[in-house]
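Take the subject:
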Amino acid sequence: MLSKWFRRSKPRVFLGSLVVLPRTDLKRYLEWSGTGTEVDEKLRSKLVELISLPPADQLLEPRDNDLCLDVAIPAFQSGSGALSHLGGEALPLVWRPRITVIGQLRQISTGRTHSHAKVTHKMPWSRFLAGSLNWRLIFWEMTGASPAQMQALLHEACIKLLQRLRKTL
């Protein structure tokens, strides 16, 4: 009976903002995604699909312990390869797909941060090279991960992020 009185109620979680920040690194010019916003929009639409919570701005009567989840993708790379020439020697440069997702839980009533987490998820080298090592490698036209593979990486990163944030509740 006393446990009911002293038990803290679980907070309700609502959706704040979902943001995919534009790329500013040098690799954006070397990858298939380039500098366009097509990949950003695909990742953002997948993020909206993955995190389906009621929006916080439509909340009529917030409680003291209600939380708002903000998620951002500050960095991603689709993986690719390039051939660099240094003093007559050819040096292959290869990088694998990677995505970073940041999440923040903040109290709706005060705006104070409750907890935050950052997850960086990389495609395993074996899976990346298995898809890239083919006839294109002879001509150094390595393509990066497909949009479906990038969305799968985002899915795995979001699961890890939500698991970390859930432990703080």
